[in-house]
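Supplementary Text 2. Reproducibility record for the structural model of the 287-residue chain.

All settings were left at their defaults, and a single model was retained for analysis rather than an ensemble. We include the record here because the model underlies the residue-level annotations in Supplementary Table 4.
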Amino acid sequence: MRWRDLPSLSSLRAFDATARSGSFAEAGRQLNVTHAAVTQAVRGLEAELAVQLVRRAGRTVVLTEAGERLARALDEGFGTVAAGIAALREAEARRVVRVTTTTYIAETYVMPRLPDFWAKHPGVEVAMSPSPEKIDLARDGFDMAIRALTDGWTERPDEEIRPLCRSPVVAICAPSLANSGLHPQDMPWVIGNENHWELAEVGGTGLDTSRLKLVDIGSPHLELQACRQGLGAGTATEIICRADLEAGRLVRLPLTGLPVITYAIVLPRGPRRAAVEAFAGWLQTIF
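Retained model, structure tokens:
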């Protein structure tokens, strides 16, 4: 299609509205412009096509034979466009909201509260993708991420960051280990051999990490469960282990110097669906 060979869309819309309503004035009301603007657009279209499309009949207008042919073509063309846009909107409305986040924040905080979101937004599907990796949202097709950001984070030009809460990192262990009489320096610590950042956190409390007995269970997803079972001490943000602390499955160790984490929603910049905004807004109410 050669768009430059077609009349302007505004003149075609003016004629289509006039043909449907039979009145310049009513067409103006439908398009939210003056009837004079509609009249001028239709007359301009007639001049461009070199054919009369409408003629006045009192306060109304009637179509000429050429006008009727063009009106039928526009009805079919605009109808096809409208149907295509409606189908696109419906498909986008049904598309799952894809969220990447850490395993712990998904399992311990967001997923238990999802029934509340679905009660408020029935029909909006949400797929959580727990992963410790920092995923490129736009490249990998995710609508948003829930991330733990350390102090000093900056917003990238292609991302929008909406902070959710600040949560301190705490040292934790099972009550049985806390009551064993062992000093935290002498306790086993559930920290993977490759988890250098967590080891650095523990070192910030004053413990000598070179002397710690590390328990590597092979999966960071199971570390909190290992702490509950008394296999060793560990660290976690307070928001993640809050339920365990309140239930007495875990207790806090009296260590200071651990960092504070900012949990935030990260969204790719650009247009986004209403369902994505709804889920992001709901997240901001539960943290």
